[in-house]
Amino acid sequence: MTQITxxxxxxxxxxxxxDPQAMATxxxxxxxxxxxxxxxxxxxxxxxxxxxxxxxxxxxxxRLTCPARSEWTKHFNGLLETPRSAYLKFHLxxxxxxxxxxxxxxxxxxxxxxxxxxxxxxxSAQAAGxxxxxxxxxxx
Length: 140
What we know:
single chain; 140 residues; 69% helix; elongated
């Protein structure tokens, strides 16, 4: 197993800025190596001490540049003005904001479930004779 003792790597781990495989490797080592866990706690504490009252920390914790879920919904439905829509795309694809990526993933999953349940309801209504067959869209 590769030894990870580099403080910068541990800082990146705390920021969740490493690839998933590296994150998993560090997590495994943290469970097995008390000294590494102690070093991580020291780094976490030093970062906390320095960043507690900074403008940057307030900006990050407040997620001041993150769009609301309702704005993401408008974006995906094509209801936003082009400049704002371009910013949302940039925020998601370039900045790779973990909060917004999670929001967007959840919104897309909810939409997919909604479409599936709507399609099932339409087919059930058709089978019961409540709808004409030509009024139901073909399944994907």
